[in-house]
Write a structure and sequence with these properties.
The chain is mainly alpha-helical and 143 residues long. The protein has a domain at 96-127. It is built from four helices and two strands. Strands 1-2 form a two-stranded antiparallel ribbon. The radius of gyration is 43 Å and the shape is elongated. The termini are far apart.
Amino acid sequence: MEREEKPGTQQVPRDNSLARGLYVVFGTILVGIVASVALVKLEQNAGARQSANTSPPAVRWVPTEPESMTTARDDVFGPALTEVRKNEDEHLQSYGWVDPKLKVVRVPIDRAMEILLKQDAEAAAPAKDEKKQDEKKPVEKKP
């Protein structure tokens, strides 16, 4: 059934944009609710599966003292590692030539730190002396 048009009147087209907008909003809300429910169900299923796996956790050996670490290392790698460590310690604590041609020497760590501290102190000392001398000089006033 078609509407009859009265003479002198025009039919105004209906604006369905509000209805379309409401459909989009409610549809988005509905999709969000469904997705949230699905995620909650998935989490519940995953939690149930994890609780079903009641195997005990893997046991790890944790050393109680630093010496036990050394003992464990020596047990695993044997006396070869102990010998290597001994040689390294001897090199770190003794004087010797690294490269005689280039005149490069090896110095014990403690002595090397003392030398570096002394060099830093000597390098900083002239700068302090220069500042003191600048302070002592009288400022000449120009007439």
